[in-house]
């Protein structure tokens, strides 16, 4: 009877997935038709390196024979300029392409869920399918994903590459993990911290040497290729990587940099710039040592750190790791701040545009209004990170000591 019920559920899943995919595509098309003017102005979605509007301006400069990197307009790599050069005159084709990117990303995340859960060996086949479908739904129906696709945010492309990287990572493909890692680092410096997860995942000396070698060769090749596309000039480095480190553009976003550096005195700026940029590196060693037996959770924690401590984050940066959250269902009973995290993230999505309207448009508020919303967003992510770490350590203690009465766990954790 149970097998028959599982067969019926399995046969109905493709139809349900097709229905969800159709609904998600429909929502993106509606957002593109009716909400694009509003969404393109949202600082929660648009930052200098993922803005499609800036990319279009750079392509027009390129067509006019002007270097896109002469001013302060373009902050993406030359390869993206050339990839989209032939497409910007066909908005319908662009829409189809970005819709396809999102659908493919959701399917890749579904594959990640299946491979990871099978590797863990904790779940039944039915439960694996259920969680994998939930992961796909979490990505496709996320309002931030819908909005990012509607405005052709370059974060959609980055999320696709990130999903491919995670799939190669959980499958244990050293070569493809190294290649995709290099592509991510080339697009934005911050994914360089993923090297810690790679060195934990591929733990033998030979594997680590191969990972570093492949990644270095690929990264150098991509840098030289971008230089070739930029008329054999390194000028793009100042507008991309150095721009991320210098934080020259203080346009508000969902990060923590802009508000602080608006307030700080110029003669202290360099010092605090180093403090803020190094902050993300401080956690690498302790996290790597603590999670040395769980490379996937380490990678997940690093994705959260990037979303919090990057100089120009957008809400789209959190899409991948939030979609993969159902994979930690076994830690759910140890979460302490789940309601607060969920409520804070939802409240930020709703309140950030309201606070922006009060500050910039009506003038009935000030920068503190908007920063309060973005700070809530960052704090919620930190709470999620600590909850996952706490849950993992507690589960490890329970399983390691064979504890039946979990009321004893708290005492043991403090010893």
Name the features.
mainly alpha; transmembrane helix; globular; 21 helices; 415 residues
Can you put this structure into words, describing what you see?
There is one protein chain. Helices cover 73% and strands 0% of the residues. It contains 21 helices and no strands. It has helices at 2-34, 36-39, 52-63, 78-85, 91-120, 125-140, 143-150, 155-171, 174-187, 195-201, 205-229, 235-239, 241-246, 257-263, 266-282, 284-290, 295-309, 319-323, 338-361, 367-401, 409-414. InterPro entries: PIG-U. This is Phosphatidylinositol glycan anchor biosynthesis class U protein. It is a multi-pass membrane protein. Pathway: Glycolipid biosynthesis; glycosylphosphatidylinositol-anchor biosynthesis.
Topology (SSEs and partners):
Layout (H helix, E strand, L loop, with lengths): L1 H33 L1 H4 L12 H12 L14 H8 L5 H30 L4 H16 L2 H8 L4 H17 L2 H14 L7 H7 L3 H25 L5 H5 L1 H6 L10 H7 L2 H17 L1 H7 L4 H15 L9 H5 L14 H24 L5 H35 L7 H6 L1
GO cellular component, one term: GPI-anchor transamidase complex
InterPro entries: PIG-U
Pfam families: PIG-U
Distance between the termini: 49 Å
What is the count of helical runs?
Answer: 21
The rounded Rg comes to 22 Å
Q: Which structural class best describes the helix and strand composition? A: mainly alpha
Strand and helix order: HHHHHHHHHHHHHHHHHHHHH
Number of strand elements? 0
Sheet-strand content, in percent, reads under 5%
Mean pLDDT: 90
Largest sheet entry: none
> How would the global form be characterised?
globular
* Helix amount: over 70%
Low-pLDDT residue spans: none
Q: What kind of oligomer do you see?
A: single chain
Pathway: Glycolipid biosynthesis; glycosylphosphatidylinositol-anchor biosynthesis
Organism: Cercopithifilaria johnstoni
Pfam families: PIG-U (PF06728)
Membrane topology: Multi-pass membrane protein
